[in-house]
Specification:
The structure is a homodimer of 115-residue chains. The first copy, chain A, has 6 helices and 3 strands, in the order ααβααββαα. Chain A has a 3-stranded antiparallel beta sheet. In chain A, a hairpin with a 4-residue loop joins strand 2 and strand 3. Chains A and B meet through helix 1, helix 2 and helix 6 of A and helix 1, helix 2 and helix 6 of B.
Chain lengths: 115, 115
């Protein structure tokens, strides 16, 4: 994945994938979209069991891209919760399109959106 | 990326990302959706300049996932063209949602869809 500012082309799809083109980033966005504010450990309870170093890396990238913002809820030691920015919430249609495609074409999958 | 049959969870979004969660696969789908049947070398002319070993790997994965199919247009040596299956064409809404988000939030990007 590219850091913010490194883009392969001026294509809007390629630019989106420069930020979000991996197996985990959009699952973090999914959890925040469906569950609201989350603490670091909350992400670990998702069914996909994200590795902790991957989670830390993706949260940092999503924050630097303006998709996620964090706020401290405790000092000494500092602890944060994470939430989507308006830019991040606007990824909802991407997730809905993926959920629709997955449910239609990947046997045995389901969508939180259809519960 | 997972091979077909390896899924992290029963979530339809996670299942979609198991197949398509990387920086390149959806750009191959984009090229096939906008340009129709393509030969191997045609993919190399896209603005993002996909490395040839990455292209070969992704085409193989997309074919094994039933998103792309290939047909020989020449024997000795065999040469193929690639096209989307109906399952692959139904990724259109995912690409459109990414294009909309990218154009809105990534400065300087544009969409083939809006030409």
């Amino acid at each position: 994945m590219a850091e913010a500012g490194e883009r392969r082309s001026n294509c809007a799809i390629a630019g989106t994938l420069d930020i979000l083109g991996d197996r985990w980033s959009l699952l973090i966005v999914r959890d925040l979209l469906f569950q609201g504010d989350l603490r670091y450990g909350d992400f670990m309870s998702a069914g996909e069991v994200i590795p902790t170093n991957t989670l830390a890396d993706r949260l940092r990238r999503l924050e630097s891209s303006g998709i996620v913002e964090r706020s401290a809820y405790q000092q000494n030691p500092p602890r944060y919760f994470y939430r989507l920015t308006p830019k991040g919430r606007e990824l909802g249609p991407v997730l809905r399109a993926m959920a629709t495609w997955g449910m239609r074409h990947l046997q045995g999958t389901r969508s939180l959106l259809s519960d």
